[in-house]
Amino acid sequence: MVERDTHRQVAELLELQLQGGSDAGGVGRYLLHRAKPHLPPWLAWAGTGITGALGYWRWADSAAAGVGLTLASVAITGVTWWAGKSTSQQRRLHSAITVAAGSAWLTAACLAGPTAHPVGDIYLMGGPALALSWNIRMVLRHTTDNTSGEGTDKGLLEKVGLARAMLGAAKVEPNRVTAPLAVEAGEQTNDDVTKSLGRIASALDLPTSAVRYNPDPASSRRGELVIVPEDMLAEVVEWEGPSNLGGSIADPLVIGRYDDGAPLTVWLPGDPETKRNSTHLLIAGGTGSGKGETALNLLTEILSRRDVIVWFSDPKAFQDFRPLLPGLDWAAEGGTPTEVLVAAVEAVIPARTGWLGAHGYRQWVPEAAEQQTSREHTCRPDGRPCGCPGMPFLVTWFEEAANTLRKMGDDAFTGIAQEARSAGVSLIVSLQRPSYDQMSTSTRASLPSVIALGCDARDEGFVLPDEVLAAGAHPGAWGNRRPGYCYVVSPGVPEDRYASPARTRAFPSRAVPVMEVLAQWAQRNGASADPVTAGAASAVAGNAYTGRTPAGTEQPTRPAPLRMVKEDDAMTDNGLLVDPEDTDIDPEAELPDAEQGDDTPIFGQETGRKPSPEEARRLFAQALEEFETNGQMIVGPKDFMDWCDAHHLSRSWVSLRLKEAAEEGRLEATNATGRWRIIPALAAA
């Protein structure tokens, strides 16, 4: 009953009393809508006539039927009188008289015939009179409810402090009503409307998020009032597979639906035809708000496209994303592997930008991912088609990015965010709280798109623009109580949708097999890194970057990382009860002469010998080669601790050698203090 009244109020407020359209179709729809509440009495009159004709056909000569119909007439009249005791006296009497007259006529029609005199005359005259009496009663009731003589909408707007505001013709869609609104010139502004949204929702008995206001950018007193009477997000919708398998990354990515049932879509690449910019994306929300499933919605859509590769960092060891690992071009856990990935992204941006510029692309478009066979997009000076391999779009994703920001500094992504869009690279950052003490203001300003899930009310200003919050968006109202509920602000999304709640799809455990099949599809049919991107990444990451493993092959194994020999290793069955490094020592040989640092250490004094310069260079070069072979391209003094112990070298000596290697071009300083990136041997040469 409450839901029906709410829908009636919304319709009356924003549609029925308005113009209803200026064309003939609009007038017809308006009249039909107004006539609907008055049709039931007339339908009852017509149904009684049909029932009388059928009764006469069956019971015309039956005395028993006459007795039964008379008793039924008396009984139903009595029930009507009894049931109406909770209503007003006038309604009770009116209902009983109507039922008594209708049942009496029906009895006479069944026995004497509906066309017999005077039964037929009574039907043609008395029936319409009773129906009209109910229509009049309805009209008088609505008039009494509005004794002030104002429209229903005026009564509501007056209650919320907008008495002189004017509503225009409403646009009615399934579960969504939109009406233009203009406040009094010189007296009120759009800010007054946004402050009244809570009171409007209260007057309509709706949640606050169901009422929004979209100001007109060209006016300070005009906008659109949007009301969504029913929350369609309460029902959980499960993920059943990608929306466009084999499509382009330039096509919309469907990740859920809005509260009125419309699909929730985002775009990553730009579109020069529609003037849509390429974008970076922030996924933000508190613990339990549904960030993981929201990320799965987006990542599965990305991996289902034919012209994109994904570099993905996850400090949680891909806890949520492991079924999709085979489809990723580069997967890095947190710590050092992520540092290498960040350095590689910084390196590929100028390389990709140079390739796009040389082939006549002002920004990445799907044609750039195909082999270059056009004269319009050639890098040859003579203008003939160059035939260069295409360059797929690159998505660089940093899950739980707060971990990376703590390790590398709050501006770790600043350069990428500011420069990557022109290179066909999209940055996706996911973290709980994008506050300014975690992420630099420059980085945050360079992330124009956001999926804002439930959060602490105090964090709303970190995730959504002020104008979207003013329009009615309120992610702090959800917290972690409604996983997957979100607001989306992104290029390509209509601005009037920014403040519309949406919900991403759920990923139950039965979705895992489908995700695994999708990852296998991406292995076989997805794009591979182009030579420019792969070359720039390898020049920085060395063996840490291998590209996507082809389907049907095993992941290449890497040598064991540098470490000390443990006691348990010495006890393995290797045929000798000695440490492996002592197997070549002749027990009968004379001990070597003492070297500097071999003496017994004094408390607080560092131990370890200092080798000759030639031996130092050889040992250190060997260590860097071992790190590079293992794919560990970011090093610092702490990474050499086991190595120093194994070679009996001092740690201070290692620090000096790191600086010398940087001067020689074998190492490069990173943003993190005391951390160095290894320049691959071929690149250094």
Automatic annotation (TrEMBL):
UniProt biased composition (Acidic residues): 579-598
Arranged from A to Z, the UniProt key words for this protein are: ATP-binding, Membrane, Nucleotide-binding, Transmembrane, Transmembrane helix
The UniProt transmembrane annotation reads 39-57, 63-84, 96-116
Q: Which InterPro entries match?
A: FtsK/SpoIIIE/SftA, FtsK_dom, P-loop_NTPase
Please name the gene that encodes this protein: traB
- Chain spans, region Disordered: 574-614
| Source organism (scientific name) | Streptomyces ardesiacus
Name of the protein in question = Plasmid transfer protein TraB
- What positions does the domain FtsK occupy? 261-462
Organism domain of life: Bacteria
Q: Tell whether Ribonucleoprotein is among the UniProt keywords.
A: no
Residues holding ATP:
G285, G286, T287, G288, S289, G290, K291, G292
